[in-house]
Amino acid sequence: MSELSLERGLAALRAEIDAPVAAFFSSCVRCGLCAQSCPFYLETGDPRYTPILKLEPLRRVWEAEFTLWGRIKRWLGLGQEVSDAMLAEWEPLVYDSCSLCGRCSMVCPVGNDLVYMIRKTREGMVQSGHAPEGLVAASVRAIRTGSPMGLQWKTLAVQIQHVERSTGLTVPVDRAGAEYLVMLSSMEIINFPEYLEAITRIFDHAGVRWTLSTQCFEATNAGIQIGSKDIAAELVERVVVAASALGVSRVISPECGHAFTAIRWEGPNLIGRPYPFRVFHIIEVLDELRRDGRLHTEGKEADRLSMHDPCNLARKSGVIGEQRALMDLVAEHFVDLDEHGRFQWCCGAGGGVSSNERAEPLKLAAFKRKKAQIEAVEPERMVTMCATCRTQLEEGLEEFNMDIPVVGLTEMIAEHLVERPAAEPEPGTESGQPA
Amino acid sequence: MSDTIEVDGKQLAVDEEGYLADLNDWVPAVADVMAKQDNLELTEEHWDIINFLREYYEEYQIAPAVRVLTKAVGKKLGKEKGNSKYLYSLFPYGPAKQACRFAGLPKPTGCV
């Protein structure tokens, strides 16, 4: 990424304008519903955070170069130019105040996919040198070390040892011919090692042949967050190479929501060819095991539980019923948040917001929407299935002095597995209280 | 910030943000010198966190970001210390960044 400049930024914006973008801009009726769907706008009341306004640099390029009226205005000297100063002003709008949650795209009455256009606008921001420092650093680390945190296999190896010690099971590594390759995120490895422990237990229980790969263990995608197709494609390519080397037929995305979007939906287009394997989120895999009768659980959580749907999983990928069917297996007293599934509200941290220090106050402001939802339901604990959402929920709840622990659904399932080898079930393990 | 700090009469290299360039240069006096630069007096409570970070890095080979630190401290030293309000009260410039710097670790990094 040498010599980023306004010219490169404008060229990138121009190149990103395709038929859908042109149709979207010419369809916008300026109704402002997108503002009403955006947690960043709603919780700050700042009109600059109206989603369609965040796209103004892209819209100006579209108008000036792809519309007759725009050309006439330019010819008359009335065109609105996109300057370096403008892009600098828009950087916090395009990055800090957008978690790519996609709620605006869902509610737009004329069907404009705003989040698709934010993603495209970010390509121009990167090329013009207007991407947030935190995301630039994470992208550089991802390319250099394979992890946006700079986390190495040696750290994962320590966690594998912990898991093997506490479960008495082997975590399979580089096992050719396994059915599933499990990808992780650095956050899962370092902050939620219970996830690795849970899948180790569950897959042993269900007889799933799986493996990790030393060649590539991380599938979060800083390129998608920052808006760089080249970086995104390189990170996807590494997963494809590792999966192909082991000959797996299925790849499990990290729990991390945007990683799922990257590897599940954007990947093949980024690398320009189909995958030789299929991609699943762990929740989809667990629900398939449940449906196939391969998950044997006992006892249920007795406290009042609610659930946060990650945007990328529920709204963008339609995985909604699966986590509820799994909850039903292990929870007696589950209550959904009022707006959930496709209509859920973002935690406020996704889309690169959490790796952008400057966005901290906005991230916390956007969380207030989630907070209000949680307060309305008064759960004793929250359940979720994305490391970024979970970190944000924990941080936000702590900030507002709400004593509501956040747990991962996968771990909760693992706690209720019937011990496999011992034929006699242990008596009195009715409601498995979490440790 | 200068590119070296003087500790026990020796010049130790630091990066532009004040983190030790070489982890192996660390001695407890490094923390004292850095704390003085930040106008902070190190107490036993600070040292609990600094020592914790040294051990953490020894095991995991990574400097923990703030949420990771908070959680890890909670697991090891108890919930009353594993919360960001307590940690910020000790390290006002950010518990992960400031404490990692005092402990001679690299700057902690977050996820995307």
Report on the architecture of this protein.
Chain B: Belongs to the dsrC/tusE family. Chain B: It is an enzyme of class 2 (transferase). Chain B: This is Sulfurtransferase. Chain B: Its EC number is 2.8.1.-. The complex is a heterodimer of chains A (435) and B (112). Chain A has 435 residues and is an alpha/beta fold. Chain A folds into 3 domains: 6-131, Fumarate Reductase Iron-sulfur Protein, Chain B, domain 2; 146-287, Rossmann fold (3-Layer(aba) Sandwich); 291-415, Rossmann fold, CATH 3.40.50. Helix content of chain A is 54%, strand content 7%. Chain A contains 23 helices and 8 strands. In chain A, α17 (257-271) links the parallel β3 (250-252) and β4 (278-280). Chain B has 112 residues and is mainly alpha-helical. Helix content of chain B is 48%, strand content 7%. Chain B has 5 helices and 2 strands, in the order ββααααα. In chain B, β1 (4-7) and β2 form a beta hairpin. The longest helix of chain B has 17 residues, at 44-60. Classes of the chains: A alpha/beta (435), B mainly alpha (112). The interface between A and B is medium-sized, with 36 and 16 residues.
